[in-house]
């Protein structure tokens, strides 16, 4: 028989901390300081010791770092690989052939979306948006695609579909699963998030295409000339709150100056920067890199198709991605720099990768630390208690007041989706994941809803909203800047397709896994 849970001051302080963090997100301010203050107050209420409270500010972030450091490594190695490929201009070669098949605006819309999705899935939208926008977007516009339609395709596929599932790098499902509790597998969250992101994205892309279809015109070089003459200032005055998605700061910096338009001549000029002896390696890695990661995805997916292939356990999938990226990075650097220089340049690439990883992930550690204080498994580590001896604050609150929670899967699922969307209002796609994951882990068992599914639903709401499809001060600024369209026009055009897609994927989650 279960002991009655006694709700104390720590429970209410924790709940108030959650409310303050959500309100801070709504106000588009950074939530690191409220998270640190909330952590100290909750631990003080639990222990009565100011020394323990101050120590918990450090230990909570340390526990979060230990739980999530595999994510740092994957980001670092993937970024290092990208930097190595840029030296050979292999990144341009991977994309440039798609210009040939852009015969009209209709095909251009889906080619833009497809290429953006694939690159963003492996490298995040950070390099995908500048690369696709500089190389493919001018060709798409010349083929008759309106710039706004191009921006919609890039945003839905990159900031929406790819970033919300984050299936290859695994940042989002890793954070969601850790916050939901030890019983929730990151691999399961990733699988379900991938399915939901495809459902959401497919619906959003189809609705976006239908809404813009009548504006697609026959191909003409005059369209590109007219587009080139547009003013490129498309950001909101003071719109960047400084707190947005992991990749927003990096991607927005790329729009600080006009990108050179991708005409045939300047693409050739860029590729000609590669020395003659490196050209064969430039072409080689433009082919080998996508094949290698396609093989990685195949290894990850085959066990789920009943093929008898052994499934990757725990963090093995992330380890495989990081290992392949590291090996490719070393080989690409060897080809670009030679054996001697490669020994010095590889560490530089890895250092740059870690710098980007900590810029991207650093601020999420104190936020995750606060929510980890409310989860029993991680709270024990933060408080220095034996496993199972720490309270699970949010779960105990929900357990005590579960009679007030409607036993309705639809209300719970859409409630978690709405919380996720609210946390994304500040333009931060991932900062709300510790909250949605914690809610999923606490609410799921109470109402009989699979916590992994709820975590994936919350992840969809948070990342699709703040990642760069529905919020004007998110990385959508960068997409609009490259497309040379007003960012508010992009928000208005994306609102209905994305919201309908999210609603449909939430219903699908209930039908498939609840």
Largest sheet, if any? Answer: none
Could you give the count of β-strands?
Answer: 0
Number of domains: 1
The helix fraction, in percent, is over 70%
Shape, principal axes of CA atoms: globular
Helix segment tally: 23
Q: Which regions have little confidence, pLDDT < 50, spanning 5+ residues?
A: 232-259
Quickly give the structural class: mainly alpha
Beta content: under 5%
Helices and strands, in order, run as HHHHHHHHHHHHHHHHHHHHHHH
User: Overall mean pLDDT score?
Assistant: 83
Features:
mainly alpha; 73% helix; 23 helices; 514 residues
Tell me what you see in this structure:
The protein is 73% helix and 0% strand. The protein has one domain (31-227, 241-513). It has helices spanning 9-26, 32-47, 50-88, 90-95, 105-123, 125-135, 137-142, 147-165, 171-180, 186-212, 221-228, 248-253, 264-272, 276-301, 316-361, 364-373, 376-383, 393-400, 409-423, 433-447, 451-469, 476-483, 487-513. Helix 2 (32-47) runs parallel beside helix 16 (364-373) and helix 5 (105-123) runs antiparallel to helix 6. By secondary structure, the protein is mainly alpha-helical. The protein is built from 23 helices and no strands.
In short:
The protein is mainly alpha-helical.
Topology of helices and strands:
Elements: H1 9-26, H2 32-47, H3 50-88, H4 90-95, H5 105-123, H6 125-135, H7 137-142, H8 147-165, H9 171-180, H10 186-212, H11 221-228, H12 248-253, H13 264-272, H14 276-301, H15 316-361, H16 364-373, H17 376-383, H18 393-400, H19 409-423, H20 433-447, H21 451-469, H22 476-483, H23 487-513
């Amino acid at each position: 028989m279960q002991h009655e849970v006694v709700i104390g001051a720590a429970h209410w302080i924790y709940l108030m901390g959650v409310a303050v963090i959500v309100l801070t997100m709504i106000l588009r301010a950074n939530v690191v300081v409220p998270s640190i203050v909330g952590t100290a107050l909750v631990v003080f209420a639990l222990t009565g010791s100011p020394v323990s409270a101050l120590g918990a500010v450090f230990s909570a972030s340390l526990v979060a770092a230990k739980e999530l450091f595999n994510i740092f490594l994957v980001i670092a190695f993937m970024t290092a690989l990208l930097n190595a490929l840029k030296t050979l201009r292999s990144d341009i070669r991977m994309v440039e052939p798609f210009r040939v098949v852009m015969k009209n605006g209709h095909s251009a819309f889906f080619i833009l979306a497809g290429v953006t999705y694939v690159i963003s899935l492996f490298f995040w939208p950070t390099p995908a948006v500048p690369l696709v926008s500089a190389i493919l977007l001018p060709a798409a516009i010349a083929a008759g695609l309106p710039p706004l339609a191009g921006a919609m395709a890039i945003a839905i596929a990159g900031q929406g579909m790819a970033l919300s599932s984050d299936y290859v790098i695994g940042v989002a499902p890793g954070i969601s699963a850790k916050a939901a509790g030890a019983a929730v597998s990151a691999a399961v969250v990733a699988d379900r998030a991938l399915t939901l992101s495809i459902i959401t994205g497919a619906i959003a892309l189809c609705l976006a295409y239908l809404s813009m279809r009548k504006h697609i015109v026959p191909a003409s070089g005059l369209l590109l000339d007219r587009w080139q003459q547009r003013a490129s200032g498309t950001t909101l005055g003071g719109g960047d709150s400084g707190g947005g998605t992991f990749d927003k700061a990096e991607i927005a910096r790329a729009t600080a100056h006009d990108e050179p338009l991708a005409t045939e001549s300047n693409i050739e000029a860029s590729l000609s920067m590669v020395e003659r002896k490196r050209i064969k390696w430039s072409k080689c890695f433009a082919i080998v890199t996508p094949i290698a990661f396609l093989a990685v995805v195949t290894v990850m997916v085959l066990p789920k198709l009943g093929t008898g292939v052994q499934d990757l356990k725990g963090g093995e999938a992330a380890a495989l991605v990081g290992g392949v990226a590291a090996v490719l990075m070393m080989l690409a650097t060897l080809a670009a720099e030679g054996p001697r220089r490669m020994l010095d340049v590889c560490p530089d690439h890895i250092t740059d990768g870690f710098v980007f990883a900590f810029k991207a992930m650093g601020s999420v550690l104190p936020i995750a630390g606060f929510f980890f204080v409310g989860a029993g498994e991680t709270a024990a580590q933060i408080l220095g208690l034996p496993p199972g001896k720490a309270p699970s604050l949010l779960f105990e609150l929900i357990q005590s007041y579960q009679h007030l929670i409607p036993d309705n899967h639809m209300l719970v699922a859409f409630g978690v989706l709405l919380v996720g969307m609210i946390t994304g209002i500040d333009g931060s796609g991932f900062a709300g994941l510790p909250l949605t994951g914690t809610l999923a882990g606490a609410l799921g068992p109470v109402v009989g809803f699979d916590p992994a599914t709820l975590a994936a639903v919350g992840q969809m709401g948070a990342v699709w909203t703040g990642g760069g499809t529905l919020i004007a001060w998110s990385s959508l600024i960068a997409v609009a800047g490259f497309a040379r369209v007003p960012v508010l026009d992009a928000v208005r055009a994306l609102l209905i397709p994305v919201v309908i897609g999210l609603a449909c994927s939430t219903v699908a989650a209930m039908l498939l896994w609840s």
